[in-house]
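Case study 2.
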Amino acid sequence: MNATETFRIVVGVDGSPESLRALEWAVTEARLRQGQVHVVTAWQHPAMVTGDDLEWDLTSYETRARHLQNQALRSVHAEQQDTTGEVVQGQAAAVLIEASTGADLLVVGSHGYGGFTGLLLGSVSNQVVHHARCPVLVVKPRHQGRL
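Prediction:
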């Protein structure tokens, strides 16, 4: 990135409290850097069981993902920031790794487990840390009694 380019942050949002913290962090950082935020929400069709009496509305999964992303953007007042959004069908880690191309930073939330296991990363954050095409920031959850 040179002085004339805008700092571009990609953030993964799935509607979880951890992803909302990651979005909040990304929007705050973009404001400080006069940068932009690109919010990415991945969705997948669930594994299906065959049967005569099963009927699935496959469009509802994408619709739900769009709704989650819109709620997340409203919750952090991202409309006041240079923010774009994208809802992509695919496995979350693969979608975020692809979205990291051309980004200056990829931000994801991590599910915290407390104790020793709290030191571990979840599967998505672990994959993006190892395979993203830009630096990655993993936002850990706040725990009561800790800053």
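The chain has four helices and five strands.
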